[in-house]
Write a structure and sequence with these properties.
By secondary structure, this protein is α/β, with parallel strands linked by helices. The chain is 38% helix and 14% strand. Strand 11 and strand 12 form a beta hairpin.
Length: 372
């Protein structure tokens, strides 16, 4: 059976050495930890063997997330690699990816990551003033210098690194400053993550950090124009890559743009399985890998319903949109405003996505014509 999935594993749960204002995980620390500081060796081996068993692909990707996953220590990941090699199936390639804030990286870490071929995602929200606006240390001081040191070490060791930039109400106003800053750093893989935070107890109100939809669309359009003019082939930007997939009639690889979701569940350090990174709550806890196989949990009827509901609850307004194939309603967590006709379930970022996808449409059409 062909099964596409990517598990976000939280070896230290929500624990982190930073205190980013927009972090949605710190408040979930008790339920993700299960009373443990670090995932036990028993749970780790159960997870790795289950992942290899469940995978139907030639390349198997292990994704280590947090909180801050480097808090688990290098020895944890050395053990993980040992277990992977012990159970590796002939002909199957294993890749490890780790998403980090970069502040704890040092020479020992980078030597290990390089030797074992890890792909690293590092969070950086732009140049110092913009980055430090919301990504702060526990004492509310700057984190930028340490993040940059970590990034520079990754570059020194030749580790494939992707920069993840959270686009918020402040840095969205400086698209070219941010993009050119990354270019100066030599960034080759770049992802922009729009920040959407609802006010507690509100159905549709968002807080002051949340990126305005149209501003987000304009941010993407501005960077896209410079990228098309100067950087095609040298810098890969995730949302541009996803938009271009429609030129080749390819399915999306990013879960938020797929027709159905549910393929990116979370496993906490005690083995608890949750439907999605944005739905780590008791209602979406489907079991535990120490008592059920990962295959059972991935194919759990409630997980199937969770994934199908994304498409089934899409408003008619979206179904009739000219950019439906590029967007597919984006992430369900952001679908909390109403359509012009009053139907619920429109994505908060709809205006911005529609602006961007229409803007890049002629480029995508030209690519399709050239390769058709």
């Amino acid at each position: 059976m062909r099964r596409e999935f990517q598990v976000f594993v939280k070896p230290v749960g929500a624990r982190c050495n930073l205190d980013c204002h927009y972090c949605y995980y710190l408040e979930r620390e008790p339920q993700l930890t299960g009373g443990l500081q670090v995932m036990s060796g028993e749970v780790l081996e159960k997870y790795i063997t289950g992942h290899l068993e469940a995978s139907s692909e030639q390349v198997v990707m292990f994704s280590w997330h947090g909180g801050e996953p480097t808090l688990a220590g290098i020895d944890f990941y050395k053990r993980a690699v040992e277990i992977q090699k012990k159970h590796q199936i002939p002909g199957i390639k294993i890749i490890n990816g780790i998403q980090t804030n970069g502040t704890l990286l040092n020479k020992d870490w980078c030597a290990f990551l390089k030797e074992e071929g890890f792909v690293v995602g590092i969070s950086m929200d732009g140049p110092p003033a913009l980055h430090d606006r919301f990504r702060v240390a526990k004492n509310l001081g700057s984190s930028f210098t340490r993040v940059l040191q970590g990034y520079n070490l990754l570059m020194k060791y030749g580790i494939q690194t992707e920069v993840l930039c959270v686009v918020n109400a402040v840095n969205v106003l400086e698209p070219l400053e941010i993009y050119r800053f990354y270019k100066e750093l030599g960034v080759r893989y770049l992802t922009f993550l729009p920040l959407v935070e609802r006010e507690p107890g509100s159905i549709s109100a968002v807080n002051e950090r949340t990126v305005p939809p149209r501003a987000f669309g304009e941010f993407l359009c501005t960077i896209f124009d410079e990228w098309v003019d100067k950087d095609i082939g040298s810098i890969k930007i995730q949302i541009f890559e996803e938009a271009a997939r429609s030129a080749f009639k390819q399915d999306h690889t990013l879960c938020i743009f797929k027709k159905r979701c549910g393929g990116v569940p979370v496993i906490g350090q005690n083995g608890d399985f949750y439907s999605c990174d944005h739905y780590v709550d008791p209602q979406n806890r489907l079991g535990n890998i120490t008592r059920q196989s990962l295959v059972e949990l991935l194919d759990h009827p409630e997980q199937v319903v969770f994934g199908e509901s994304k498409e089934l609850t899409l408003p008619q307004y979206c179904r009739e949109s000219e950019v439906l194939d590029m967007c597919n309603g984006e992430c369900p967590k952001n679908r909390f405003i109403t359509t012009p006709s009053g139907d619920i379930g429109l994505n908060y970022l709809c205006e911005g996505y529609k602006l961007f996808f229409n803007h890049c449409g002629p480029f995508v059409d030209a690519v399709a014509a050239q390769w058709g």
